[in-house]
Amino acid sequence: SEELAIASLGIDSRIVDALAKRGIVNLFPIQRAVFQPAMQGLDLIARAKTGTGKTLAFGIPILDNISREKSSMQFRPAGTPRAIILAPTRELAKQVENELVLAAPHLSVVCIYGGVSIEGQRRQLASSVEVVVGTPGRVIDMLERGDLRLNEVKFAILDEADQMLAVGFAEEVERIMQKLPLQRHTMLFSATMPSWIRNLTSKYLKNPTMIDLVGENEDKVAEGIKLYAVSTNDLAKNKLLADLLTVYAKGGKAIVFTKTKRDTDDVAAVMSRSIGCEALHGDISQYQREKTLSGFRDGRFNVLVATDVAARGLDIPNVDLIVHYEVPGDSETFVHRSGRTGRAGKKGTCILMYTLNQKRVLRTIESEVGCKFEAIGPPAAEDVLASSSDHASESIKSVHPDLAKLFLPAAQKLLEEQGVNALAAAMAHVSGVTQLPPKRSLLTYEEGYMTLQLTGGNLIDSSAVSSAVMQLSSKAGMSMGRVTMLSSSTATGGVFDLPEDLAKEILALQNVGSNVLTAVKVLPDLQEDYFQSSFSRGRSFGGGFRSGGSSYGGGSSYGNRGGSSFGGSSYGGSRTGSGYGSSYNSGGGYGRSEGSS
């Protein structure tokens, strides 16, 4: 509506025009809520969800005020900004700087942070500067050297203030706040309000206006982010991760979060054999960090594996998928991780990988954040191949016409010889698929197994299903995996795994009674216990014998997928082994077979 249009709010026309060039013509919710009190010069605390466009929330009022002030001012002494913006990480500081420069190119904005030579930043401060964005540690360095003076500051901003404490900047922040003029406008932005934040506001803000866009009972993850949870185990994770990226990222950008630097390196090393990806963590040099971020941002590779600290404040637009490779240690970390997608009103997807012993943590996150995960199973082979086909199609479309012309003679010859099969083969090659995918369990991701479904009126529990399978084939009954019952109110029965040869054998039976036996291509709705235990059972057999969970090694699910780099990304399965176990039952019963493998 008109009242939300930036052009109608009386903002400096240069800012309006600069934002319009980027397609920003209306205020997002956080910007609308902050705009009026900020323009009135009130101190404020804004509690907002991650990824809601808060940089411009404080940026627009500051830039507008300084722009008008500059028009009537002839000269500003070196190193005396009118606004100081503190950020917990260099990545966030650079992101804020970039947003402000794009919104007000007529103003001088300087970004100062550690990890790089201080001399270049000192030279920037030696000239007239309106806005300084920086990390607390480097700001202190500049103050002690005399290159930065805060006596002229009119606006003080603490962005993602709760993370200042998390990364150890609490003391530096207070030292900086003590050096600011008493007459100033202070704004604090934070997703959470720990005691340190409350103490800080009571000491350094004057009757602040509280703007809470989260609330105590609201989901703190930005709207538009779809949340999924998938059960796994440590041996299955890399193979599962590769297929999750293929199916859910849909060729777009994805960030995989790990807990430790070692995990980041290990996962990136395995994934990079078949997927275009790189690692980002605190031990990587600043030069390499910026090179990596630039490559990810520009689409030279589409998967970034990162630690939480390294990914704070990443200036990466249009991230389509977030994968929590490990369950976050707390709800705040989950919110900040997930906030890398679905930013500024856009859609996004977030997948949490968890093991059985992490189930309680998952439920705690749901309770504290106010969200709900949709439980999913591993992607079916057909879904992975379909996604690979879609990616290949987009890659082919992205080839420059002039380059394509060079291949026309050969393409024409292939079409004459093979017709449309030639294009299909080319798409398979582009996607990196070199062989037909092996059958694998949809319950455990174990290769060489098929997931079957048996339904019938008398199949009311797992024992009944096991008995029916045993009656069909004693060998199948002794080899079948743990039965998981359907949750559907319209059908009774269950799903289970069998070795591929046995599955084909019983599917081919003609006289199997009144039940219905089918090969499962997509997992039906299952009772909740599947998602708690499908990857963590031992292997028990009829007759009372039981062995520990078995482990299986293996190569890639689909051969050398991901060999192509067309379109800036390539996806494929990992080459790690996988380990699974299931519990088995046996008994008697009857069934009827339908369908085939």
Automatic annotation (TrEMBL):
Q: Name one GO molecular function term.
A: ATP binding
Q: SUPFAM superfamilies in the record, alphabetically?
A: P-loop containing nucleoside triphosphate hydrolases (SSF52540)
Which Gene Ontology CC terms are recorded? nucleolus
The record ties this protein, via PROSITE patterns, to: HELICASE_ATP_BIND_1, HELICASE_CTER
Report the residue ranges that make up the Helicase ATP-binding domain in this protein: 35-211
Which residues lie within the region annotated Disordered? Answer: 552-597
Catalysed reaction(s) here are: ATP + H2O = ADP + phosphate + H(+)
* Enzyme Commission number(s) of this protein: 3.6.4.13
Q: Which Pfam families match?
A: DD_DDX21-DDX50, DEAD, GUCT, Helicase_C
- Tree of life domain: Eukaryota
Q: Where is the Helicase C-terminal domain?
A: 240-385
Q: Which UniProt keywords apply?
A: ATP-binding, Helicase, Hydrolase, Nucleotide-binding, RNA-binding, Transit peptide
**Can the keyword Coiled coil be found in this entry's annotation?**
no
Give the family, as the similarity comment puts it. Answer: Belongs to the DEAD box helicase family. DDX21/DDX50 subfamily.
Q: What is this protein called?
A: RNA helicase
Q: Which organism is this protein's natural source?
A: Selaginella moellendorffii (Spikemoss)
Taxonomic lineage? Eukaryota, Viridiplantae, Streptophyta, Embryophyta, Tracheophyta
